[in-house]
Design goal:
CATH architecture of the domain at 14-68 and 182-244 and 270-307: 3-Layer(aba) Sandwich
Helix content: 25-40%
Structural class: alpha/beta
Radius of gyration: 21 Å
Largest sheet: 8 strands, mixed
Strand content: 15-25%
Distance between the termini: 23 Å
Number of strands: 16
Shape: globular
CATH class of the domain at 14-68 and 182-244 and 270-307: Alpha Beta
Order of helices and strands: HEHHHEHEHEEEEEHHEHEHEEEEHEHHHE
Number of helices: 14
Amino acid sequence: MPIIKSVPVADLPLPGKEALEHSKRLCNRITETIQLNNGMISFARFMELALYEQGLGYYSGGARKFGEAGDFVTAPEISSLFTRCLAGQCQQILRELKQPSILELGPGSGVMACDLLQALEQKNCLPEKYFMLELSADLKQRQQQLVVKKIPHLANRVFWLDHLPEQPFAGLILGNEVLDAMPVHRLIMKNGSFNELCAGITDDEFSWFYRSPEKQIITQINKLPGDITQDLSEGYVTEISLQIRPWLNSLADILTCGVMLFIDYGYTRREYYHPQRTGGTLLCHYRHHVHDDPFLYPGLQDITASVDFTLVAEAAVEAGFKVRGYTTQAHFLLDNGLDELLNQSHLTRASDQAESGRQARILIMPGEMGERFKVIALARDFNVPLAGFQSFDQRSRL
């Protein structure tokens, strides 16, 4: 989503009565969980409930999330140019493999899947199967409707899953804005060491508490280079993910040969824990507004944290992958032919050409998505240099 300055909570639009009732039901569920855990739960647990609690969480409920009618717009919805460039990279990988498939994690509205299959069909490079791993019944239904509407002749190649495939496969695993939605623990610097920020209740409202970090968090903190943490000021807040490692291990079990591509907003470790990043990276998205209060309207807003791509790279190597590329979204799209697509556009009306150019600028300009979003390629038994990283590969910074 394009960079939007955080707005005061008081300036956010108010939810309707039905939405507030939905949020209240989720608040009651979270409150019960807090009470059953001695009045305090990790923020990761709060974020998990807020986003994924069955039937109530943001991604499990029925509210529209993507596009102009939702809370944010992803790159594939901004322009098909994004997915057509991605198709160029996918084509290069698929042609090196025998009977390859594609697994898309968190396919959102389904727009990327439809556009990608259309583009690959034009390149005569369709995958054997296109798996869509979707936990939300509502989103799954919308994706199925879109597939039937946009690519009915390819619908027999598309399969929906609510868990990872049982049979390992060769091919591609794709994740666009998936890593940022993984629950994270929050930390605060107190007296020269990190404490864990937790969710509790004060005066019938969710509020912050802190405690000594659990063993897993301490272990991960101890893996950070000492010169990164020594200059962090009192009250410095940040996030840390304990899910990346086991998650990548699970993906390693199903990809026999091929490449995983993840596109998301984030930083290398030294950027992530920069001394000036005193408030952490947590952001909430509600009706195309961005703010930093995760306790507001649970179930009605998205909660995200930027990605520590150094952690992703380390965990991937531990899981048996090799890091084959790390670059900005802008360079990835340009290396995969964005300029050529714009020049070859079939659009004849000046207004359409101008709109296509506007969309491209959102995707690649530094002040929009171009530099904030990164692309990382993780490969198993795949040694072909990847086109999307040929001009600006930043693996040395990880």
